[in-house]
Amino acid sequence: MGGRGGSSGSSKSYSVSPLTAFKENAKQFSNALQEGRARKASVVEFTDITGKVSKRYWNGATYTDRSSSLYEKEFKGTHKVSFKKPKEW
């Protein structure tokens, strides 16, 4: 029968709880978006803890999941970031 899929998220095993891993993943994704804005990148690609690549596109005010060619003059390039395992794990 169905369940909530407690172990279905991450393919790599870490010595921390899934919640801690999720919080660290979200923090690094947020930091990647901030770095992308500081570097004026039109696309931010983040490879998360599971290996999935998330792309966010600059729309003139923030990063969204849909691309728009209207703002490619303002920001250029792609900022690629991958999840990095913290030393304390």
Q: Percentage of helical residues?
A: 10-25%
**Strand count, sense and closure of the main sheet?**
4 strands, mixed
Oligomer: single chain
Strands side by side in the biggest sheet = 3-2-1-4
Helix-strand topology string: HEEEE
How does the overall form come out from the CA principal axes?
A: elongated
Rg calc: 15 Å
Mean of residue pLDDT values = 86
Number of strands: 4
User: Can you count the helices?
Assistant: 1
Share in β-strands: 15-25%
Distance between the termini: 33 Å
Helical/strand content category: alpha+beta
Q: Give the uncertain stretches in residue-range form.
A: none
Description:
The chain has 89 residues and is α+β, with helices and mostly antiparallel strands. The chain is built from one helix and four strands. It has one helix at 18-38, and strands at residues 43-47, 53-58, 63-64, 78-82. Strands 3-2-1-4 form a four-stranded mixed sheet, with helices on one face. The N and C termini lie far apart (33 Å).
Topology overview:
Layout: H1 18-38, E1 43-47, E2 53-58, E3 63-64, E4 78-82
Parallel strand pairs: 1-4
Antiparallel strand pairs: 1-2, 2-3
